[in-house]
Amino acid sequence: MTPIVTNRKTCTRMIDNPSFESSAHGRIEQVLFSIPSWVVRYQNQVEIRGTSALYRSVFETLKRHVRFVVVTQQEGEPHLREWLTELGVQDRTDVVTIPNRTKLSVWAEDKFTVCSDESGNRWLLHPFSEDRCGDATATKAIAELVGWEYVEVEEPLQSGNILVGDDFMLVGADSAAAMSGLGIRDASRTLHVIGSRIPVPGFKPSYDSRDISVEGAKWCELCYRGNSANTVQPVFHIDAFITLAGRGASGRNRLLVGDPAMAAQVLGSNLPDHAMQAVFDDIAVQLDAAGFDVIRNPLPLVFQDNHISKARQWYFASANNALVEIDGPLKTVWLPTYGYGCWDVLEATDRTNEEIWRELGFSVRTLGDFHPFAVNLGALRCMTKCLIRGK
What share of the chain is helix, strand, coil (3-state, %, to 5)? Predict the structure, then answer.
């Protein structure tokens, strides 16, 4: 018996030899979406249209055998069901509703972590200490629908900071301590902790950020958004810059690791001085030394200007935050793309990322403009969660 968590209200729960759901291996069979009511109620408003269109494109692009679970607020349910009917997926979608007063984030991936025990029972581990936007309420409702165990954990166990391969797990250093505190150990997989040996800058709020001039006006520039003061990760979740790509001909597990300098080279632009290139390089070197086949891919650092607050917000246009499916010899990747509007130049890095995956033997399916998600520090993997994969 492996101790998994001390529930904050009850007692210690036990899981027999926990095994985490793979991040890449197995046919994707069921996917969770977290769609706040405003996405479907106000989908025609200019500022929401892009977010709504992305959800539609993911539903349409995923394979026909995939089933869906969607959580939304009660006021959004009729609009959502109409929407699902238009998309033709209503017969393979279960809708979970939560009270209107309960906030709901778009980030499905980080609401909980899925693991199973040696008897095949499945568990949803929700990080109570990271309870944001009503995620606990949503997770309980999802657990009831699918009939799995629900447990609250005290430590900040974040799924975006965990990547699960066939015989290994990558865990961001910020979550590794949480897993250790819970006594969690997937005995069938080797654990690799991801962190830089080079200091990582932390985010500074607007009052402590650096000043810049935009069209003659004084603005503030927000860099390293999402990074805590003492982090050793260049991005607060490792799935923003590392992607699992299965095994190559040599038998080594392949990892794509984002490379801001490669993106600048492809774009013919200068590398921003706050791109943390040395940090990404150090992590890549460590993974190579650990026996992985490391492949670098473009990771552009871009910005969005807020003319009301006069703030320039920097973020990574991550293609690493993707969905990967390795189903025996069949390999598919769903990629977010960014070459649109004022950032149409990113078509070049979009194409380069596609080419890298095709060279690895993957069928590539691209999805539309992910800037609305990326500016909020997430992308495709963050907005979805694979609940069930085939073996």
Answer: 30, 35, 35
Rounded Cα gap, residues 320 and 303, in angstroms = 18
* C-alpha dist (Å) from residue 102 to 105, 124, 324, 333: 10, 20, 31, 34
**CATH, range 2-389:** 3.75.10.10
Q: Map tokens 């949480």 to a residue.
A: 178
Q: State how far the Cα of 94 lies from the Cα of 146, in Å rounded to an integer.
A: 10
The rounded distance, in Å, linking the Cα atoms of 205 and 186 is: 38
- Of 312, 321, 208, 214, the closest CA to residue 258 belongs to 321
Which residue has better confidence, 300 or 46? 300
Q: Is 232 helix (H, G, I), strand (E, B) or coil?
A: coil
Cα Rg for the chain, rounded, in angstroms?
20
Domain residue ranges in the chain: 2-389
Helices 260-267 & 277-289, crossing angle to 10 degrees? Answer: 120
Backbone angles phi, psi at 259, to 5 degrees: -135, 100
Convert the pLDDT of each residue in 200-250 to its tens digit. Answer: 998 877 656 778 888 888 898 999 999 988 899 999 999 999 999 999 999
The pTM of this model reads 0.94
Q: What is the pLDDT of residues 322-369, one digit of tens each?
A: 999 999 999 999 999 999 999 999 999 999 999 999 999 999 999 999
Exposed, middle or buried by CB within 10 Å (0-12, 13-18, 19+), for 307? exposed
- pLDDT score of 181 more than 90: no
Task: Determine the average pLDDT of the residues in 56-79.
Answer: 94
Tens digit of pLDDT for each residue in 143-159? 999 999 888 876 667 89
Task: Determine the Cα–Cα distance for residues 22 and 168; give it in Å rounded to an integer.
Answer: 10
SS3 107: coil
CA dist., res. 158 & res. 237, Å (int): 8
Token pair of 33, please?
A: 């979406």
Both tokens assigned to 240 = 């923003």
Comparing 186 with 275, which gets the higher pLDDT? 275
**Six-digit token pair at 220?**
């503030």
Distance of CA 101 to the CA centre of its chain: 26
Q: Residue with structure tokens 């080594």?
A: 252
